[in-house]
Structure formats: structure tokens, C-alpha cells
Amino acid sequence: MPPIMQSSRRTFLVGLGRFAVAAEAARFLPSVALADDSLKALCPPPSAWTDLARKVSGGVLRPDDPFFGDVCRPNNLRYVATLPAGVARCVTAQDVQACLTWVKQQGMPFAVRSGGHNYAGYSTTPGLLIDMSKMAGAELVPGSDGLVRVLGGTLNSAVYKQLERLGRTITHGRCDSVGAAGFLLGGGIGFNMRKWGVGSDLLRATDLVTADGSLVNAAANQDSNLFWACRGGGGGNFGVNTAFTLQTQPVSTVTVFNITWTKDLPRVLRLLLTELASAPDDFGSKISVTIPSLSERCDKVGTTLSILGQLHPSKTTLKEIFKSTWELADTRNVKEDVAYWAGQDFLTETTYPYFYQEKSSYMKAADISEEAIAAMFDWAAKMPGTSMPSAFKFFQVGGAINRMGPTETAYVHRGFDWLFSVEANWWRPTDPLPLVEANLDWQQRFYEDVNRRTKAAGAFQNFPDPSLADWRKAYYGENLDRLSQVKKAADPTMLFNFPQAIRPA
User: What is residue 42's predicted lDDT score, i.e. its pLDDT?
Assistant: First the structure.
């Protein structure tokens, strides 16, 4: 078994005092009216909680615990008002089994959480929060060719540290407080995905506790349908994943960069989206068009365009890849041939809890016209704005992702060049509810218009969008029917249930 590793805590996360402020702000959000039976399920006798605590290695936190607020706070503060009745701190798969047995006995709702970064709040619950953060660790599989076993509650930061010690890497993200489980189960995007595929493409096996309480090991040669579904079918659908076995790759050096433009932005963006689509698979990038906050607008801060990314050793130079946009840049921060994990420090995104919604779709470079680009900037100029900057972004896909067929794994989004997203960010109570609603309405109309103009399709299941109408087709496309069959076999009674959960066939 891998060593158990204590999850690190960010010193910049809001503390209990700000948590109270955020909770007060969240009282303006819609709440769910609970029926009498549901209320009874949320109020089991004290003896039931004592029984559960005896069976869970890490103990159970209740609302009067001084650390309760820190542990149950989600990253998206839109859902901070949904506080659990208790938090079970699981250390072993047996702890998870005990929790599932208990919630079935009590008829209590529950949710599973590793990093707490579910965009739509599906890792929050008024019932039992099954907290996986103590089930953390990563270790090389003895005798294997670069296989690493990652426990189900491990944050990205712990995975990165262990891979750095091993001189290995995978397709990984940039936010080190994201849970590895949610990242992998929904696909998993990062700057290595054009070289090696999305994160779930590197999955070789996974352990999970299913709805009947069984602990199973799913791989290509056993429980193969369940294994297929865990490679992109989204977290929380088929069981509680307690471990992942991943194929890693040796590291070398990388060139990392952050380049910014402030002038002629529509032309620059069109050139980037069309020219970079033919870049070698060793190249990965994310383009961001940042819309300033209301206070920044008062200070005459304008919209900016930037690109962040990396290049593995390649015969093609960075300047050759950027072609006509290289000389147009205002600033170019480039670090050439640095050690791989030192390069990732340059690329790391530091986040903190705030309020947000993100909408996504997939695009092909050939369908992105000058007219579509002009419309994007017209929409950006119309954003009502909040106290926080917002952005629309393009994550570069293609390469190895597109060399797999859409039905080979549950991750269906193959054949595209860009994953597009548009975000709306705000802070309550600084931004009044009518202003928030105006910005969400703007976001929806921007999204619909841009999708129509670019023939964009689908949506990324790791960016769950509670406002997405046809989420089943958008997330899973032609794989939905098979996923529903897997759900029927693994969880016919919908024990694992949330608003965008896959339904049994």
C-alpha cells in the first residue's frame, strides 16, 4: 500500500471568519425545501453518529467541531450554504464501505469529496460528506514499467511531489488543490494531453467501492465495462474510487512561456487559434482573453490576451510555432530548457474559494471565422462586469487525444482543436444579486451565440454546468447509452445520485 500522506493546507484559504461572511452572503441563494422524511433522515439519533465514528478511521466531524467549516468548505462558494450534517474522514476503503452501509441504513443523502472543486457543487450535501482527503498517497508499483498507484483522496500537489521524486510525469493540471480523483474520472486536461492524451487515457486500473458495498478492481481484463466508464464517465456516477493506477512517462526538460498582447486582439486571437492548431504534439497551450473587473475599468484597464504553455524538446522552435503572432506580442516571458517540474512551478495556478460559473464546448480551428472572433470581442465589451475579472479561454486539445476513437473510452470529445470556456466570476456580498444575474444572463447569451457561429459541440464533464440544458448529450455524446448500461449494472437503484448523475438504462 502507498504511504499515507497528510494533505497540505493553503495558508491563503479564507479562514473561519471569512467562511462566516461567505455563509451569510450565500443565504441569498435559493435553498432546497426538504420534506419531513428528508428532515428525519438528516437527524439520526446521536447513537447513530457514534456508531459511524467507531467505524471510520479518521473520525466524524459534526457542525460544533472547530474545524468543521474548514473541512466542508467547497471551492465554489455558490454552494457554501449547503452544510453537511456530518463529515466522515475516510482513511481506508473499508471506511468508505462503512459509510455507504450507514447512509443506506439511515436513508441519508451523501456526497463524496476529494478536492472540493466541483464547479456545480455536486461534492456538497446536507447529509453525510464522505471526505477522502486523508486517503492520500502515491507510490511506484514495484516491478512495473512506470506505473504509479494514487490513492483516491490525493490532491494534485501530492501527486506532483511524488512524481518529481520519481522523475516521472503524467497528463496533469495546474491547480495543485484539485483532487486527482475528480480530475481523472472526468478526463483530465493539461499541457501534456496533446503528447500523451487526457489524464483518463493513462489510467490502467482503478479500485472502487460500488453501490452494493463491494470493493472491486476494474481494469481492461476485469470489470472492463466499469473500467471503460471510469475513463471519462465523470466522478460520482459508478462508485467511490479509492485508488488509481496510472501509466507515467519519464521527464526531461521543457520550455515554458507566458506571452501577452494588448493591441489588435481579434486579429491576434484568430491567428493563434488557426496557426497553433498545426503545432507539434510536444506543444501545449491555454489562451485567455481577460475581461477587467468594474474597478479595473474605472482605472482604464483594458481587455488583454495571453497564452500560457510549454514545449517539450522539439525540432520546431517556439518562434516558428507562433509564426505571425510572435513579433506582435507586448511581452514574452520565456524560460527555455528548464527541468520539467521547475517548469511546472512557473505554470502553476494558485486559486482560492470564490463564486463562479463556467460554460464550455469544443471547437475545430477551421470553423472559427473572423466574424465569430469579432462577435466574441463584441460580447466581451457588453459584459456588465463584477468586482472580479472574468475571461473566455481556449485550452488546446488535439494531438494524441484525437488518435483515440470517441468510443474507446468514456471520454467522447475527440477530433477537436480547442476546448472553449467562458467564465463569470463574482464576490458576494460585494456584487448584488441583480448584478450577478445580469452577468449570468450575459454569459448564457455569449455562449449560445459563439457556439452557433463556430459550430461548437459538447461540453467538458469536468466543468459541470448546472445551467446546461442537454447535459447528457453534451458531456457524453454517443457514449451515453453504454454509460447508462454500466450504471444499471453497477448502481441500479441510483445510490450515487446528483442533478447531473447518469441514469440507469
Answer: 80
Query: Exposure string (b/e) for 74-106, b if CB count within 10 Å is 16 or more?
Result: bbbbbbbbbbbbbbbbbbbbebbbbbbebbeeb
Q: What is the pLDDT of residue 30?
A: 34
Query: What count of other Cβ atoms lies within 10 Å of the Cβ of residue 54?
Result: 10
**Alpha-carbon dihedral sign for residues 440, 444, 449, 450:** positive
Tell me the C-alpha to C-alpha distance, in Å, between residue 344 and each of 6, 202, 273, 351: 22, 19, 24, 15
pLDDT of 5 strictly over 60: no
Cell of 15: 479562514
Contact between 398 and 417 under an 8 Å Cβ cutoff? The reply is yes
Instruction: For residue 238, give every residue at least 6 positions away whose Cβ sits within 8 Å of its Cβ, in sequence order, or none.
Output: 208, 210, 226, 229, 230, 486, 487, 490, 491, 496
- 339, amino acid identity: A
Q: What are 371's three cell numbers?
A: 466574424
Q: What SS3 state is found at 401?
A: helix
Instruction: Write out the DSSP string of 351-391.
Output: ---BEEEEEEEEE-GGG--HHHHHHHHHHHHH----SS-EE
Given the C-alpha cell 516491478, which residue does it identify? 143
Among 38-42, 212-216, 250-254, the range scoring the smallest mean pLDDT is 38-42
**Could you tell me which residues are beta bridge partners of residue 148?**
140, 246
Give the model's pLDDT for residue 364: 98
Residues in contact with 298: Cβ distance below 8 Å, sequence separation at least 6, in sequence order: none
23 Cβ partners below 8 Å, 6+ apart? 80, 81, 83
| pLDDT (average), residues 317-342 | 97
Residue 93 contacts residue 207 (beta carbons within 8 Å): yes
Are 413 and 460 in contact, with CB atoms under 8 Å apart? yes
* Predicted confidence band of residue 7 (pLDDT cuts 50, 70, 90): very low
- The whole-model pTM stands at 0.92
Count CB neighbours of 264 within 10 A. 11
Q: Using an 8 Å Cβ cutoff, are 114 and 155 in contact?
A: yes
Q: Domains of the chain by range and CATH? A: 42-131 (3.30.43.10), 138-250+476-490 (3.30.465.10), 253-339+350-473 (3.40.462.20)
pLDDT category, 256, cuts 50, 70, 90?
very high
